[in-house]
Specification:
With about 150 residues, the protein is of the alpha+beta class. It has three helices and eight strands; from the N terminus they run E-E-E-E-E-H-E-E-E-H-H. It has a single domain, classed as Alpha-Beta Complex (Nucleoside Triphosphate Pyrophosphohydrolase), CATH 3.90.79.10. The structure holds zinc ion.
Length: about 150
């Protein structure tokens, strides 16, 4: 694992850069049940490393977490998110959220995920009601009108 690219937030605090992937199969979304903090069901995601462009991080992280190859990445939004702490202790992340197509077969990475699978909107709402959606994904699923 490389070192996450470090930046400075709008309020002059240390910040990492991260990418997230919205991956759909018909009306279902690919999520993992995260094995490390922040816990909960989340899309595939990870840090942008030093000397890496966001889209390169997207290809790398999706492959590491699922064995899938990214096709046709489309940037949906980018934003600075506060109170979003990673296991390295940085609490601000500048996110690039992509939607993308994929090819290959889904394989769980046992270091990253307790489970991996495609879930319907109703199942995602169920995770939200049980407080099992990772907060930043709850934020995006809400903003995108999915929950
Ligand atoms: Zn971080």
């Amino acid at each position: 694992m490389g070192n996450p690219k470090l930046g400075i937030s709008n309020d002059n605090r240390p910040m990492h850069y991260s990418v997230g992937a919205i991956i759909k199969n018909e009306d279902k979304y690919l999520l993992i049940d995260r094995k490390s903090p922040p816990y909960g069901f989340a899309g595939l995601a990870g840090h942008v490393d030093e000397n890496e462009e966001p889209v390169q991080a997207l290809y790398r992280e999706v492959y590491e977490e699922s064995s899938l190859s990214v096709l046709n990445p489309r940037l949906l939004l980018e934003e600075e998110v506060h109170d979003n702490t990673c296991k390295r202790g940085i609490d601000i992340h500048y996110w690039y959220l992509y939607e993308c197509d994929v090819e290959g077969d889904v394989n769980r990475n046992p270091k990253e995920a307790k489970s991996i699978g495609y879930y319907t909107k109703e199942e995602i709402i169920g995770f939200f009601r049980k407080d099992r959606l990772e907060p930043v994904w709850e934020h995006w699923f809400r903003n995108l009108g999915i929950i």
